[in-house]
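Action item from last week, closing it out:
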Amino acid sequence: MHNIFKHILAIPRPTKRIILIAADSVLLIGALWLSFSLRLDNWYWPRGGVNNPIVLLVLFAPMFAVPVFTHFGLYRAIIRYLGMRSVWSIVKAVTVYAALWGLVVFLSGVEGVPRSVVPINAMVALLAVGGSRMFARWLLRKIEDSFSIKHTKKGAGADAVVHYLSRVVIFGAGAAGRQLAIGLGQSRECVLLAFVDDGIELQGRDLMGVPIISQEKL
């Protein structure tokens, strides 16, 4: 597994981009097929099969999406370090693509495409494209973490493992605390356990999946 992970990281950037474009193309075609099926409440297959122009509209959907995704930087982002800004770019890119595809469909005059397929496609495509990236981010970082721990154990002994898993508490759940938490989220040496804040209205709540506690509970 370690060698596989190293090979994945060593793939040239243009090749990774081609793989990502191919994956997006398959997901977008599948999203459209699922959108028709959800709208019509059955597993959709157009009349006439491949001779139906709707099939061409579905198969050529990636031709509209890829330039839009490229414009919004979806193929420049490093998957392992996707943040909220990247997520917002995905939302905008998918929305523009879905609207563009819907415009082309209705300008083409092809019959048999319900208008509600367009917003359904936007939601399904967003789940597919965004969800696939979030899953890849989670998986790659989990693999990276596990190999980092193994490497630390082999190379530096038990003391280094304890340092690698340093437990951290942030005092203050305000803007500065959030920024620090985001930075620590990129670290391979720290585990954020909690925020400590004097604000009673914040205590007992979660911030970025981390509990906010009082000094007494600390």
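Closing note: The radius of gyration is 23 Å.
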